[in-house]
Amino acid sequence: MNWSHGYHVSTGYSFGHYREMAPDWMRFGALLNGYRAAPPDQPFRYLELGCGQGFALAQLAAAFPHAEFLGVDFNPEHIAQARRFALAAGLENIRFEEADIAELAKQWPADYGRFEYVALHGLYSWVSPPLRRAVVSCLGAACLPGALVYLSYNSMPGWVAGMVVQRLVYGLQQQSPQRSPAQVLQQGAELLEGLIQAKAKVAAALPTLSARLEGLKSHPSSYLVHEYLHEHWQPLWHSQVAAELHAAKLIPVGSATLPENYLPALLQPELAQLIGQGEGRAMQQTLIDLAINQSFRRDLFCRGARHASRSTQELAQSWLLARQGLDRRQREVMTGFGGLDLPQELLDAVVDALESGSERIGTLAVRGPFAQRPIHELLQIVALLLHAGRVGLAIEHLPAARVRKFNRAVVRAALDESLPYGALLAAATATAREARDFELALYPLVAGGAIPLEPPALAVQLRDRLLASGRALLKDGQVLQEPAAELAQAQVLVDEFLKDTLPDWQRQGVV
């Protein structure tokens, strides 16, 4: 289905809406590779290389109690924290191991075993070529036949201007290694701004250099250090990555950024026609990346050549679709390549089917306008709405007690240990829902779904909990000092929570 008539370029789009490690990539990925790996509703084994503190992996382990999860990271502090959190959350189906990927490539531990799903996020384009080869060796040893691999990386050509910035700030760091990263980044921003204002030719050649400058000024320093001050940082072309992973018998099958699976059909007709002239998948992917100025890819690979499967349609039809802020008046879906207007008739059909909250795709496929259309058109609508966060793929039979224990562990880690855990698990879709400090503080009071206190008493509890965790109450960005002002602001936050957040949590099974 081609909706290029509804295409228009939109500026200022943020990729933050789609959560990186949401489980939908497993379900859509399994569909794309013909369900040769175990479908996520059956027992499976899942590996994350470079798992960090393991929060995303722990979220999945809580959501899929019938599966086994292994997280591996080089940093012992990360592994220790991941183990503590898993224990606090009561997760018995997950383990974390400290290991060096270069050593694992020499001998994959027999007790690690092999896996149906493997994920690597924020690793591949930040390490040296020899370490990338070690990653590929690990994938070759860890992946079962038919396994699905998720690999995210900085990509070309969207990072051309970023490469100029990285060379500048990394050179400054090498020149004066005694200075802090913050000082290096500030000097880099000042030099870059001077070049742009002085109309240096590079600014005219790379108009997006100004956007990179704004990023240097606004992004957290932890992100900027990871992005610009790594010696081996190197954005990659998709064709490079696909060629490297071929050594592990991994074949590209699609993208975890769901709308990109429907390119080039969703682009303007002129671009789609040009891309169609490319010979072979690799060249077409290069042309697509040029067309949309791709800067970050979330590729899916399977081990072994893909082939069609009759079970694909049957399993897709069994998915349970859950409503999340779906509105028939909101036709536009934002993507990394612009805004798309969904056909009103098809959007209305989805909204009507989900009036009660959820419906199986198989039922929707034989209703209304979808009855006379192939199921891939319905799956395309579902993919776009999933990307926009307006629907979710429901998880059935996830015990509420398991979700509450996980979420209580999140609250303790975030408020008592000041760890960067700002999301709670939603039982309905096994996805994380972002939660602000005051929402985390209120969670234990409403975890059973009921409101145990009147709003004024909740405000007192909120104020006391935040202050006890070392957090201040703010109003218009200013720290409040007077008890009366603190209590008044706590009451404002409680009212907002009861009106908006709690009903959403109840619908999504957060509480």
Protein architecture, described:
The structure is a single chain. This protein is α/β, with parallel strands linked by helices. The chain is globular and about 65 Å long. Strands 3-2-1-4-5-7-6 form a seven-stranded mixed beta sheet. Helix 20 (455-468) crosses helix 21 (483-508). It starts with 23 loop residues before the first helix and ends with a helix. It has helices at 24-32, 55-63, 76-88, 101-106, 129-142, 160-175, 181-197, 201-205, 209-218, 221-228, 238-245, 269-276, 281-292, 311-318, 344-353, 361-365, 375-388, 400-416, 437-446, 455-468, 483-508, and strands at 45-49, 68-73, 94-98, 115-120, 143-154, 250-255, 296-303, 320-323, 332-335, 338-341, 358-360, 391-393, 423-426, 431-434, 474-475, 478-479. The model is unreliable at 1-18 (pLDDT under 50). Helix content is 47%, strand content 15%. It contains 21 helices and 16 strands.
What's a concise summary of this model?
This protein has 511 residues and is an alpha/beta fold. It has helices at residues 24-32, 55-63, 76-88, 101-106, 129-142, 160-175, 181-197, 201-205, 209-218, 221-228, 238-245, 269-276, 281-292, 311-318, 344-353, 361-365, 375-388, 400-416, 437-446, 455-468, 483-508, and strands at 45-49, 68-73, 94-98, 115-120, 143-154, 250-255, 296-303, 320-323, 332-335, 338-341, 358-360, 391-393, 423-426, 431-434, 474-475, 478-479.
Q: Could you give the order of strands across the largest sheet?
A: 3-2-1-4-5-7-6
How many beta-strand runs? 16
Structural class: alpha/beta
**How far do the termini sit from each other?**
39 Å
Radius of gyration, rounded? 24 Å
Count of helices?
21
Shape: globular
Q: Sheet bearing the most strands, described?
A: 7 strands, mixed
- Which regions are unreliable across 5 or more consecutive residues at pLDDT < 50? 1-18
